[in-house]
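Hello,

Our lab assistant flagged a job as stuck in the queue for most of the afternoon. It eventually completed. Since we weren't sure the result was trustworthy after the delay, we are filing this so someone can double-check. Below is the sequence as submitted and the structure that was eventually returned. Let us know if re-running is recommended.
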Amino acid sequence: METKTETTKETLEGYVVDIACLRTIPSVRLGEAAKEHTTECSLMGHCMESGYGLVEKMVKPHSLTRRLQSMW
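-- returned structure --
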């Protein structure tokens, strides 16, 4: 007997920023700073360890790390 499982697909758009840097950005500058954040910074050791967030263009941060961990 085969069981079907329903999967939900969700598309998120925005800027990926490490949590260490997100914590230092004032909320009024979040969108601008997220857009300017560099990949090089996000790949530094302490930044990678902090996890990552997604800042939507509407300036609403989401935790990607928790979302991805919940998938496994």
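-- support follow-up --
The delay was a queue issue, not a problem with the job. The result is valid. The two ends are 25 Å apart (CA to CA). The chain has a mean pLDDT of 81.
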